[in-house]
Automatic annotation (TrEMBL):
Cellular component aspect of the GO annotation: lipid droplet; mitochondrion; plasma membrane
Key words, A-Z: Aminoacyl-tRNA synthetase, ATP-binding, Ligase, Nucleotide-binding, Protein biosynthesis
Location of the Leucyl-tRNA synthetase editing domain: 195-256
Keyword Cell division annotated: no
Organism name: Megaselia scalaris (Humpbacked fly)
Residue span(s) of domain Saccharopine dehydrogenase NADP binding: 1-56
GO molecular function (one): aminoacyl-tRNA deacylase activity
Family to which this protein belongs: Belongs to the saccharopine dehydrogenase family.
Protein name: Saccharopine dehydrogenase NADP binding domain-containing protein
SUPFAM superfamilies listed in its UniProt record: ValRS/IleRS/LeuRS editing domain
Chain ranges passing through the membrane: none
Length: 265
């Protein structure tokens, strides 16, 4: 096994990976550079598999201890792990330090990683070309103000976005209802469910209860002031769900198809 600890790996890593595969030697590194790691997977995975060689990245201090801590929590505590936060305290001994410091190679890796972050989109589109689900890094965000006709790949005609639909949710145990304004009527399936929230409404499409939560992330002056949470829609929805310890419903498979939760549609 060759353990490579010399970065930045975007400059010095590929040569070692290639040599290890040719020699039939396993390769381990401590890289935290997504572009390097995914490029190596894209270029050398097939060749490494043929020679039964393992190429393993991200085995540094910021990876393995975090993974071990997460595994420990999952095995020793009841419930589902919602999120993990890591705290790192550093110190020095001997001569007094003039302040915080960082290894030059780590700093250089970070600078180049941020500079070339957008290049990950192209790499991942090739790496996962057999799957149609995508991440936020592959999405170009367009702000739409009001109904707007937009050309969408795969559609012969333009698709209209920005149209608000009002959907009434009956409050369970009362005769009242909450009206939610949404531009994504078909995504009403992708709501969050909660374990410990008392206030609930009845979902008009799924025919089951869903929780009511209160969060400052909602713009009370937009639409009716009530919104539904769609965990796969954007980071804001995801963060709101995490803050309230909600469990998301997975509605898409890894190949981009809707799963059994979408039978009614």
């Amino acid at each position: 096994v060759v353990v490579n600890t010399c970065g930045p790996y975007r400059f010095y890593g590929e040569q070692v990976v290639e040599a290890c595969i040719k020699a039939g030697t396993h390769h381990v590194d401590v890289s935290g550079e997504p572009q390097y790691m995914e490029t190596m997977q894209l270029k050398y995975n097939e060749e490494a598999a043929k020679k039964n060689v393992y190429i393993i990245s991200a085995c540094g201090f910021d990876s393995i201890p975090n993974d071990l801590g997460t595994v420990f929590v999952e095995k020793n505590f009841n419930g589902v792990v919602n999120s993990v936060e890591t705290y790192l305290e550093t110190g020095s001994s001997g001569n007094k330090s003039s302040g915080a410091s960082l290894n030059y190679g780590t700093w250089e890796s970070a600078v180049y990683g941020l500079t070339h972050a957008k290049e990950l989109k192209g790499i991942r589109s090739q790496l996962f070309k057999d799957q149609s689900t995508i991440s936020d890094i592959e999405v170009d965000t367009i702000e739409v103000k009001g109904p707007t006709s937009i050309s969408v790949p795969g559609y012969e005609k333009n698709v209209t976005f920005g149209v608000l639909y009002d959907v009434a949710y009956k409050i369970i145990g009362t005769d009242e209802e909450i009206v939610v304004s949404t531009t994504r009527l078909k995504r009403s399936l992708e709501m969050w469910q909660s374990l410990n929230v008392d206030a609930q409404v009845w979902h008009p499409f799924r025919n089951e209860p869903i929780p009511i939560i209160f969060d400052l992330g909602v713009d009370k002056d937009f639409g009716t002031g009530a919104v539904k949470i769609t965990p796969a829609h954007d980071k804001l929805d995801f963060d709101v769900g995490n803050r309230h310890l909600l469990n998301p419903i997975q509605v898409f498979t890894e190949d981009g198809r809707v799963d059994n939760h979408s039978v009614i549609f």
